[in-house]
Amino acid sequence: MKDVRKINCDGVITSRRKIANNIYHIKIELEERFPIFAYGNFVMVHLKDYMNVLLPRPFSIFRAKNKILELVFKEVGTGTKMIATSILPFNVRVWGPLGNSFPFGKDMLCVAGGLGLIPLYQSIIKRNFKEVFVGFKNIYEAYFVKSLQKRGVIISSDDGSLGERGFVTEIFYQYLKRTNFKGKVVSCGPIGFLKRLWEIEREVGNIETYGSFEKHMACGFGVCLGCAMETPWGFVKVCSDGPVFRLKDVFGE
Amino acid sequence: MSLKVRIGNLELKNPFMPASGTFGSGLEYEDFGNLSELGAIVTKGVSLNPKIGNKPPRICELPGGMLNSIGLENIGIEKFVKVLDELGKYETNVIVNFFGNSLEEYIEVAKILDGHNVVSCLEMNISCPNIKEGGMCFGTDPNMVYTLVKEVKKNIQKDLWVKLTPNAGNLISIARSAEDAGASAIVIANTYTGMKVDVATKRPVLGNIFGGYSGPVIKPITLYHVFCCAKEINVPIIACGGIVTLEDALEYFIVGASAVQVGTANFTNPHILWELIKKMESYLRAENTSLSDLVGSLKI
Ligand SMILES: Cc1cc2nc3c(=O)[nH]c(=O)nc-3n(C[C@H](O)[C@H](O)[C@H](O)COP(=O)(O)OP(=O)(O)OC[C@H]3O[C@@H](n4cnc5c(N)ncnc54)[C@H](O)[C@@H]3O)c2cc1C
Ligand SMILES: Cc1cc2nc3c(=O)[nH]c(=O)nc-3n(C[C@H](O)[C@H](O)[C@H](O)COP(=O)(O)O)c2cc1C
Ligand code: FES
């Protein structure tokens, strides 16, 4: 995606809505129009008025239209707590779109766990997939449930408090065994989830699974070399070689 | 108001440039600003052979600063030369930061860079272990620095800048050695060695255990080093450490730096160098002064 234009400008968080336990949806009004982006791209957000959060944080692009950028995030540490609790309007600096994107194609499957839904959500809504599996920890951490249900998404929760009971990876696995699906699978979720999907690909064969990975980042566009991820073939940069990788290229034999 | 500054044989259109390792090859910043407007482009450290770098995690954020243990990962001089060809289209100086683990390695890389027409001058990172001397850091011993600079300089035509490690403690004697051996400028300084422990797991946060501390928190310390060295040496000093605002840069000029490098702040705003140049122009106009009047204007 080398020729995609990037912006780097100031913005103001103008609205914030809690959509589940510790999960928020925010709108950022940017000084510039947000460029065309692809599903899986992310932005770096710098909390420029707070010296104690020095580095910017990476967030998937949830939606962007004209000068409004929307993100969905979970409060996990210092920076996200700041965004979750500060009085609005709240000043930030944003640069992006960054990174590569999910493969595009017909009849793909989609598997998302928890926050992994965010970079895939708009594509799910557009019904770009043959079948979609979304798993949450429990009903309290679930979001956008109604609109997912409306699109026939298979929803599950680890504790059974919402939809089918069990890990989303296992529900996906049962589906593969039932249907003998062949083709591409796109996914996003925690590292354990991605590892399990790789085990599944290895076992069933015939599928190509792509996943979006996370690492601590400083720059987001390939200059600091801080986001290095170990693979059997050496280090890759999650921000600029990824964040989307074929699982085989990360975990492979 | 002219922002021009002369460093050895080089003329810089302004005294602002990135710090090595925080700006990639420069090409990654094409989206954020016109590279020709910078005083210089300073590229990521390169060595004779490719280096795979350290085990992750490689970065750790701390209040006001960050630790990095990238481990000088780079593609090696052979591949890097192709990147240099691409940089040739920009109308500014290209400064190539390089390093080695032996005198011979330093000399060999320097010779290759010296022969490349895009390279304006060489910046030597001396914060590396000398394998032959039991891994002792080149940059902490004045005699080793003298020999290293002298031998490298003998083999090249272009200007050589020497980038000091602040971990040497007394930078004055190191800076003097580099100057006496033929350095055209002294860059002060690299990162401060440090570490962070995760108390829950009792493990170091960085995969490499320790790393280099950079960012706003180091500025007062590096500023003091620049102040001390500026009084003692005659070649220009290029200050590097914790610059975020114009005020930070001005402090360095006032204590005697002729130019400045911006590192970690490129990560918090990829457009920072261009903003600092604009602000500097406005400042000099508003104060009706020049850069040369500002440099070393500290009143004691
Ligand atoms: C490409 C990419 C896209 C992302 N998209 C989203 C998103 O859309 N919504 C969302 O809520 N989060 C997303 N994240 C994760 C998000 O960047 C981190 O949650 C955030 O940086 C934490 O900041 P903090 O200051 O609150 O946490 P810190 O105080 O820095 O850390 C708190 C905890 O979060 C962990 N953490 C911090 N940064 C990261 C990181 N980059 N990756 C993994 N763990 C981290 C730390 O290890 C620690 O356990 C994404 C990460 C990447 C790499
Ligand atoms: C991620 C990172 C990578 C770096 N890589 C190099 C390098 O390759 N060579 C070098 O001489 N200095 C390197 N440095 C040091 C910087 O050039 C600079 O000296 C230091 O960060 C202090 O400046 P700052 O506080 O403005 O960041 C690196 C620093 C960081 C943060
Ligand atoms: S975050 Fe800087 S190289 Fe990936």
Name some characteristics of this structure.
heterodimer, A: 253 residues, alpha/beta, Elongation Factor Tu (Ef-tu), domain 3, Rossmann fold, 2 domains, seven-stranded antiparallel beta sheet, seven-stranded mixed beta sheet, 6 helices, globular, B: 300 residues, TIM Barrel, eight-stranded parallel beta sheet, four-stranded antiparallel beta sheet, 9 helices, 18 strands, binds flavin-adenine dinucleotide, binds flavin mononucleotide, binds FE2/S2 (inorganic) cluster
Q: What do you see in this structure?
A:
The complex is a heterodimer of chains A (253) and B (300). Chain A is built from 6 helices and 16 strands. Chain A is an alpha/beta fold and 253 residues long. Chain A folds into 2 domains: 7-98, Beta Barrel (Elongation Factor Tu (Ef-tu), domain 3); 109-251, Nucleotide-binding domain of ferredoxin-NADP reductase (FNR) module (Rossmann fold), CATH 3.40.50.80. In chain A, strand 14 and strand 15 (234-237) form a beta hairpin. The longest helix of chain A has 14 residues, at 191-204. Chain B is α/β, with parallel strands linked by helices and 300 residues long. Chain B has a single domain, classed as TIM Barrel (Alpha-Beta Barrel), CATH 3.20.20. Helices cover 31% and strands 23% of the residues of chain B. Chain B is built from 9 helices and 18 strands. The longest helix of chain B is centred in the C-terminal third of the chain and has 16 residues, at 272-287. Chain B is globular, with a radius of gyration of 18 Å. The two termini of chain B are 27 Å apart. Chains A and B meet through strand 14 of A and strand 5, strand 6 and helix 7 of B. The complex binds flavin-adenine dinucleotide (FAD), flavin mononucleotide and FE2/S2 (inorganic) cluster (FES). The site of flavin mononucleotide (FMN) has 25 residues of chain B, from strand 4. Flavin-adenine dinucleotide is lined by residues 42, 57-60, 72-74, 76-80, 115, 118, 214-217, 243 of chain A.
